Amino acid sequence: MTESLERSATMPLPAREQLETLVADILAEARAQGASAAEAAVSFGSALSVAVRLGEVETLEHHRRRGLAVTVYFGQSRGSASTADWRQAAIRDTVASACAIARHTAADPYAGLADPERLAREIPDLDLYHPWALSAEEAIELARECEAAALAMDPRIRNSEGGGVATHAGFGLYGNSHGFCGGYPTTRHSLSCSVIAQDNGEMQRNHWYSVARDRVGLEAPIAVGQKAAQRSLRRLGSRRLGTRQVPVLFAPELARGLIGHFIAAIRGGALYRKASFLLDRLGTPVFPEFVAIRERPHLLGALASAPFDSEGVATADRHLVEGGVLQGYVLDSYSARRLGMTTTGNAGGTHNLIVEPSGPFGHEALLQQLDTGLWVTELLGHGVDTVTGDYSRGASGFWVEKGEIQFPVHEITIAGNLKEMFTGIRALGSDVDKRGGIHCGSLLLERMTVAGE
Amino acid sequence: MMTIDTLDLARQQLLTPAGLGEDDLNRTLACLLGHAIDSGDLYFQARRAESWSLEDQQVKSASHAIQQGVGVRAVSGEKTGFAYSDEIQMPALLEAATAARAIARHGGDGPLQSWRPIQRPALYPPLDPLLTLSAEAKLRLLEAVDAEARRQDARVNQVMVSLAAAQDTILVASSDGTLAGDVRPLVRLSVTVIVEQNGRREQGSAGGGGRVGYDWFLAEERAVGYAREAVRLALVNLDAVPAPAGAMTVVLGPGWPGILLHEAIGHGLEGDFNRKGTSAFAGRVGERVASPLCTVVDDGTLAERRGSLNIDDEGTPTQCTTLIEGGVLKGYLQDKLNARLMNTAPTGNGRRESYAHLPLPRMTNTYMLPGAHDPGEIIASVERGLYAVNFGGGQVDITSGKFVFSASEAYLIENGRITRPVRGATLIGNGPDVLTKVSMVGNDLQLDAGVGTCGKDGQSVPVGVGQPTLKIETLTVGGTQA
After folding, report:
1. CB B81 to CB A453 under 8 A?
2. Which of A125, A166, A269, B180 is a good FRET partner for B314, with 20 to 30 A between their CA atoms?
3. Is A156 in contact with A176 (CB distance < 8 Å)?
4. Alpha-carbon distance B445 to B253, whole Å?
5. Considering only alpha carbons, which residue of chain B is nearest residue A11?
6. pTM to 2 decimals?
C-alpha cells in the first residue's frame, strides 16, 4: 500500500483568519472572566520526518501539533495556562485555570504586557516560509542518498545510525489586550547523517547536518553524508593527552556555544537575580577590542529572524558588543522593568547574532595561528556555571603542532573561566556556521587547561 | 502494595468521554494491520500539569497545562510508521492509523490477538497530585522553603523555589493483545539559592520528588531540608579553591553521584544501540566490564520513586533487570521492538515522553548494590584524590563510550582526610572500563532525592539513580590546576 506515501509532507496550515479569531476569542474570554489585561499565543505545526538506516527505512513519522497559551493579569497579579485543544469549552477552561492562578499569585509591580509604544506596528515579511512539497517517498530517497554517500566513502564506515530528512511548517500568532495581533508562517527543513567508523576494534561516531528555511538552502545530500563520514573517520586512532595548559581553537559549531554562554550571562533574568558572572559590565570591555557582535533580527530567510519578539515588541538591528565593549543587555519587558531599563525586544531570545570575523581567517589560517595546541571539534556535558563563569567540559578534537594536525584526541576535558576565556580570544574566523541563531566562525583562545592522562 | 484497576481508570478518562470502546480500538488496529504490518499499538494519554514558582519571597507566577492525544504506531520488520493526533476521536484515530501504516510495502500481515488486560499491584497511588494541597497550602509550602533558606545564613541573597506536579493517565492497546492503563502522579520541588560574600557569588541547588502527592514534601521536613541543603552547598562553594586537573583517585559519594552508572553504563546497555551494534557494549554480554565488586540493576518497581512505572509505555510490567552482576555484563534494557529483533524478552523499559513521541528503550531507576566497606574507610584509604558528592548533569557518547558528569560539590582528599572544597569540575571517563577500576564499594547505598530527567533523541523522561560510596582508582578530573 502506498497511498499515504504520496501525500504531501506536511498538513496544510490553518488560515490566518482562523488563528486570529482564536486569539480574539481567548482575549475576549479573559476579559469576560474579569482579567484587566491578557495575552495569548496560538500555534500550529506539522512535520514529516524519515530516518533510513543501512539503506532501509527505519522510521516514518507524521507530526501535527497545536498549542494555545494564555496569560491573564488582574492588576499586577498574573496566571498562565495552556492546552492543545482549540474548542470553545477548552478556551473557557484554560482561561479559567489562568484566572484561578492569578487569584493566588502576589501582585508584582513589574508584571504586565509590553508597553504599547514598543509593539511592532509593521510586520515585515522576512521570507521565512518556503513549504517543501516533499512526499514521504521522496524524503526516504533523499535520506537514503545521504547515508549511501557516507557508507561509500571508505570501507571503515561499516555501521550507521542513519540518514534523516525532516520538513516542518508552522504558524504562530500572538495577540494581547493592547490590540496587538501578529503572526506569520515559517518553515524549517533539515538533512542529517550519522555514521560509525570502525578500525582495529575502535568505534567512532560522528554526524553532519544541514538546516534551512528554504530547501534550496540545504547542502546536497551527498555532501552531508560525505562530511559525516569524514568527521567519523578522522576520529579513528584517537588518543588521550597529558594534562597541560595550551591554546585552544574551537570549531565554528562550538564557538557558537561559547557566544551562547555570553548571552546567558547578559540576559535580564540572570542580571536581576544577580546570577551572572557579567554583572554591571554595561559599557565596559568584556572581549578584546576587535570583537563586534550585532543582532540582525530582520535577515531574510535566516533561522532566528523575527519581526517581533514573543510579547509583540518590534525587533531591530543593534550592536551588542562593539570594540569589545558590552553595549546592551538581552531583556524582555519584565526583566527590563526590574533593572530600570527598557526592553531590547528579546522576549523569547535573541534574533540572529552576528559575530564579526577578526579577519579573513579560514580554518587553515587559524590552525597556523594556533600553532601548537588543541583544536576542539566536539564537547560533551554541561559543566558551565553562569553565576561564576566556571567552565569545564569533556572534549575531543585534534592535537596540532606548528599549524599541522598531529593526531585525534579524546577523553580529555578543557577548563577555564568564561570571563578570562572571553578576554583571551585571539581570533575569530571567517568560516562562519549559519546553522543556528548565532553566526560565528572558529574561535581561537589564548589558553585553557586540558586534563587527561 | 495496593491493587487498583488502573486500566479501568484510564478507560474512563481517555476513552469514555470520546465514546470509544474496545471495539473501536480493535477497528483501529485492524485498519493498521490490514496492510502488511507485523504489529501496531495505540497510546492514549491525558496529562495535567502545573508549576508554581517563588522569587523575591513571593509566588508571582504559576502555570497550568493540559495535553492529550493518541499516538499510533505500525511496525513492519525494523520499520516503524508513526502518526498522532491531539484529538481523541475515531476519525482522527483512523487518519493517524492510515498515515502510520504507510511504512509497510511488503512483509506478512500481523495477527490481531484478543485482549489480554495487564494488571499488577500498584507501585504508587493513582492520585491527582495537583489536588493534594489547596492553592493556599502550596503558597505556604513555597514560602516556608524560602524562609528556611533565608534563616540559614545572612549571606543568602536570592532564593528561588519551584513546585511542580503532573498527572499522566495512559492507556496502551496493542495488536499483541496488550491492554493496559496507568495513572502516574509525579511531583517535584526544587530550590536554588545564591549566596554572596565579599563580592563572590555562588549558587546551590537541591530538591526532590516522586510519584506521590504534594503532602510528601511536608513529611519528615523534606521541603525545608532541601532549603538547608541548597544553602549548605552554596556556602561550601564560597570557600572552594580551583579544582585539580588530571587523572587521580576519585571517591564518589552515595546517591545522586550514581549518575555515573546512568551515563557510563546505562545508556550503553539500551537495546536499540546494541541491536544496531552502535554501542561500545554491543556483543559483550557475558564479558567482564566491571570489577567483581560491582552489581548494577535497573529497577522500575521501587514504590513511589520518580523513575518507577507500573507498566512501561508499551504496557509491559516493569521489573528489576540485572545489568552487571559481580562485574560481568548480564543483559540489556529492552522495549518490544528491540527485544523482538534481538530474540529476547522486553524488560519493561519501553518509554516515551508523550503520545507524540515513539517509545525507545530507556532506563528507570539505575543503581549499584551496596558492598562491604564503611564509607570512612574508603576515604581513609586515599592518599591524594577527589571526593565528589554532588553533581549537575552528565552526557555520554555511546559509540566511543566516553562519558562525562559534572561535580557541583567536591573536596580534595589528602592523606586519607577530606580537606578543602574545590570548584565545580567535569569528570571524564570511558564507560566500558571505568567500573573495572572500582576498588572499594561502600555499604551505604542511597537513591537520589528524585529530580533526575534523562534526555535521548530529544525525548525527556523522569529517571532515578543511586549507588553506595565508590572508590575509582583513576578517573580524569577536569579542573584548572594543571
Report:
1. no
2. A166
3. no
4. 10
5. B99
6. 0.95
| Predicted-complex ipTM score | 0.94
- Structural domain including A254 reads 238-453
Task: Please indicate, yes or no, whether residues A206 and A245 belong to a single structural domain of this protein.
Answer: no
Reading the block at residue A388, the C-alpha cell is 561564576
A426 and A443: one domain? Answer: yes
- A127 near B CB under 8 A: no
Residues of A in contact with B69 (CB under 8 A): 84
**Residue B66 — very low, low, confident or very high, per pLDDT cuts 50/70/90?**
very high
Q: What is the pLDDT of residues B318-367, one digit of tens each?
A: 999 999 999 999 999 999 999 999 999 999 999 999 999 999 999 999 99
Give the position of cell 496492510. Answer: B35
Q: How far apart (Å, rounded) are the C-alpha atoms in residues B75 and B306?
A: 30
Same structural domain for residues A224 and A244?
Answer: no
Does A387 contact B at CB distance below 8 Å? yes
The pLDDT of residue B112 is 82
Cβ distance of A104 and B60 shorter than 8 Å: no
Task: Quote the pLDDT of residue B1.
Answer: 46
* DSSP secondary structure of A391-441: EEEEEEEEEEETTEEEEEEEEEEEEEEHHHHHHTEEEE-S--B-SSSEEB-
One domain for residues A351 and A211? no
Which chain B residue has the Cα nearest residue A415?
B480
From chain A residues 191-250, the ones with a CB under 8 A of any chain B CB are: 196, 203-205, 235, 238, 243-245
| Whether residues A188 and A153 fall in one domain | yes
The per-residue pLDDT for range A324-345, each reduced to its tens digit, is 999 999 999 999 999 999 999 9
